[in-house]
Each structure stands twice: as structure tokens, then as C-alpha cells.
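Subgroup meeting minutes
Present: P.N., E.W., G.H.
Scribe: E.W.

1. P.N. recapped why we're keeping a running log of single-chain structure predictions: easier to compare across weeks, and new members can see raw inputs and outputs side by side.
2. G.H. added today's entry (206 aa).
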Amino acid sequence: MNDDRLPVETEPPISEELRQRGIDVLQGLLASGKVDLDRFQRALDGLLGARTHADFASVVRSLPPPVEFTPVARRRQEPFEISTSMGEVRLEGRWQVGRLTGIRIMGMGAVTIDLTEAEFDDWDVEIVVHTTMGSITVIAPRGLDVRQVGRSAAVNSTLEEPIPGFPVVRLSASCDTGTVRLMHPKEKMQRRWGWRRRPSQATPRS
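Output recorded in log:
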């Protein structure tokens, strides 16, 4: 008997690297006090037992997100738009990312979009940015899902692979003459030294 049915496409298995990254996120939440030990153990069991990306994302989505969300009463109903003829636009610190954010520089200028401390109006947001001549830099927390949905410039990205279940940023970045750079925040040297060195516990000799 012939079976003419098309073969079912199977989803690629979750890599051990991705599973470990999810566990690292979970451990960070425990260390910061954002989850208690009971919630940590349940989520850990879920991450270890996840067989599909959908299962993995479901566990991650149940945890405190890596970005802050705007209180419902303050969320924008209209797009957040910035337009200028020339200069520098820097969005950093605690700023509000609307469901649709548009930035346009009609001339030479630089745009920096720092998402590390921003408040998101939704789990899925869209950012459209254009400068005629200049540079566009997007700084994203590790694991955030930044998807390039449109561009017309050289793109230099050092972003890690996103973690399923993290918020999604759909980015359309373009410049007639210039570059687009996607990166994670740089670690401060003092913090890195803090992980490696501890104050001496030795008592002075008399």
C-alpha cells in the first residue's frame, strides 16, 4: 500500500547551549530575588523537560521578563514618533517603547536606541528608524529577540541568538549612506573585577 502523504517536518531539538542559557537566566532571577526557590525548581524542571521550542518558550514566558513593561494606564494608543532635520537622537535610560516607534532624521545624524532600561508597551513591538546619512545603533539586553524585518544599509550585528519566550522587537532600520549596528551593552570593567576579586579576609600581623 502506497502512502502519498507528505512527511511531517520535525522541529529541530533544543540545543544544550540554549537550555543552559535558559537556566542561567533562571539562576539570575533566583539570585536577584525575583523568583523564590519553589518557583525556581518548577521552572528548572520545565526547562530540563522541554522538548520543543514552544515548550521552552512557555516556561520562559511564565517568568519575570528581562525588560520592564509600562503600566496599562500609561501605554500609548498612538505611535511614538520623532522627526528632525539633523543632529543626534539618543533614546536611553527609562524611556517608553510604544507598540510602534518611528524615528526619522532627514539629513546627517546619528541614532542610538538603548533598550536595556526601557519600558515596553507590549511583548511584541516595532521600531522603524531611518537617517539619510549617518549611523544607527541599537543596544539590546541579552536574549531579547530583535528581528530585522527591513533594512537598506550595511548591518553589523554582534547579538547573541534570542531566547524563545523573550519579548520581540521587529526592527526596520535604514540609512541611505551609513551603517546599522546591533549590539549588547558592554560590561563595566569594575563589575567584571568585582566578580573575580574579593576583599582580603586576612588579619594584619601584630
